Amino acid sequence: MTFFTKFGEYLLMLKGMFTRPENARMYWKEFMHQCVEIGIGSLPIVIIISLFLGAVTTVQTAYQLVSPLVPQATIAQIVRDSVILELSPTVLSIVLAGVVGSKIASELGNMRISEQIDALEIMGINTKAYLVFPKIMAALLMVPCLIVLSAVLAIWGGRMAGAFSGILATDIYDVGLRQNFSPYNVFFALTKGYTFAFIISSVPAYYGYNVSGGALEIGRSSTKSVVVSCILILVADYALAAILL
Amino acid sequence: MIEIKNLKKSFGDKTILTDVNLTLGTGKCNLIIGSSGSGKTVLMKCLVGLFEPDSGQVLYDGISLTEISVDERKQLRQKIGMLFQGSALFDSMTVEQNIKFSLDMFTRMRHLEKIKKVNEVLDRVNLKDSNKKFPSEISGGMKKRVGIARAIVLNPQYLFCDEPNSGLDPQTSLVIDKLIQDITLEYKITTVINTHDMNSVMEIGDHIIYMFQGKKQWEGNKEEIIYSKDEKLNQFIFASDFLQDAKNMRMIEDKALEKK
User: For chain B, which residues lie within 8 Å of any Cβ of chain A, measuring from their own Cβ?
Assistant: First the structure.
C-alpha cells in the first residue's frame, strides 16, 4: 500500500470522527476515562524520567562549564531553557509515544481483531467518533499538562542534583532560574506539546483501528505506530523550531 | 423480512458473491450453510452493512440499506442484533455492563430500569448470577448466551448469528440453537444464522440456503434438504459416512412406512 493511500485513510479516519454523538454523556464518560488512562496512567514514568532528566542535565552542564569566567548561576539558566525548550516536550513525548501510543494501538487492534469494533458498528455507533475522538481529545488535554509538570519536576530535579552533589548551591540555582527568563519559551513548549499530543494519539489510533489479521499483526502495528510517531515527533520538532524560533 | 437482490461483492480481482437473490422471512430461522470460503460471512457482513456490496440491494422491510443516509442507517442498525462467532464481548466490561451498554447509549431509561431489563434478558438466556463477572471469567457457552442477551436487549427486529455453535460441545450447541429458535418465535424477528453445523440445520432450519462458490446453490427447508438431489449440496451435507448412513437408514424407514 502506498504512502498516499495510507495517508488518505488516515485523513478519512479523522474526518469520520466528526459526527453528532449518539449520546453525549457516554462520549463524555469515555473522554474522562481516556484522560485518566493517558494522564494519571503515565504519571509514574513522567515523574521518574523528568527528575532524572533535570538531574543529569545539571551535572553534565556543570561538567562542561569549567571556565571561572562563567557564573555558576548560568548552569541553572541552561538547565531551565534546555528543559523547557527541548527535553520536557520532545523527550517526554517520545517516551509517551511508547507508553500511550502502543497502548492505544494495541487496545484498538485487539478490539478490531476480536470483532468488538464490528459489534459497536452493528449497534449503530460511529466507532471512529466513540473510540478514536475521545483518545485524541484526552491526549490534547493531558499531554501538555504532563509536559508542564515534567518541566517543573526536571528543574526541581536539577536543583536537588546540584545541591546533593555539591556542584551548585540551591540559592545560586534559584538566582539562575530567574535570569533572562523568556515566557515565549513556555508558549513554544506548549505548541510542541499540542502538536506531539495529536501525533501520539492519532497515529497509533490509525494503526490500531485498521489492523487486520491476528495477534501477531496487533504487535506489529503497535510497534509500527510507535516508530512512525517518534519519527513524526522529530520531524515536527525540527519544523516547529525552524518556524517559531 | 429481508430481501437481497442481485448482490455482488468482490475484493480486488477475487469475486466473493455473484448475483445472490434471497428473501429471508420474519419469524423464521434462516440458515445460511456452505463450506469454508463459500461467501457466507461476506454475505452476512453485506447484510448488516459492515461491507458495502459492489452492486445489488439489501432491503429491510422495503428500506434499502445501500440507499439510506448515514443517520438513517444508524437508526436501522438499532433494530439489528448480532451474535458474533467469538461473541465479541467488551473485555473491560462485566456481563451486566456489556448488556447495559446499548441501553446506556440509546435509551433514556433510569439506572434501576436498565438493571431490571438486563436481568430480564439474562433470565431469558438462562444466565443468572453472572452479572458481575468479566468475559474472561465465563465459559464459551456462557459467552454466547451473553452475546445473545446483548443482541436482544433493545428488542431488535432482525437477529444475525455468525457461527453460533463454533467451539461449543454438542449439548451446549443444542441449548444455544433452541434459545435462538425460541427468541425468534417469541419476538417474531427475522433471524439469519451462518453455520456449518448440520445438527443446527436439522434442529432449527425453517429456511435453509446453501452457498457454493459465492452463489446460492440450493434453497429449501429441513425436510427437503434430506431428499435433495443437488449433487453439491449432498457432497456438503453428507461429507461424513455417518451422515450418509443416517440418510440411507431414514430412506429405508420412509419406504417401509410407505409400503405399510
Answer: 48-50, 70, 73-78, 80-82, 84-86, 88-91, 101-102, 104-106, 160
pLDDT tens by residue, B24-60: 988 889 999 988 888 888 999 999 888 989 999 899 9
What residues in chain A have their Cβ under 8 A from chain B's Cβ atoms?
19, 22-23, 26, 110, 114-116, 118-119, 121-126
**Can you say how many angstroms the Cα of residue B145 is from the centroid of all Cα atoms in its chain?**
13
Using CB atoms, which residue from B50, B74, B90 is nearest to A124? B74
Query: How many distinct helices (H) and strands (E) make up chain B?
Result: 10, 10
Q: pLDDT tens for residues B6-28?
A: 999 999 888 899 989 999 988 88
Alpha-carbon span A113 to A170, nearest angstrom: 55
ipTM for the complex shown: 0.84
**Alpha-carbon torsion angle B246, B249, B255, B260, nearest 10:** -120
Question: Which set of grid coordinates corresponds to residue B55?
Answer: 452492486
CB A75 within 8 A of CB A61: yes
- Cα B189 to Cα B22, B79, B214: the distances in Å are 17, 10, 26
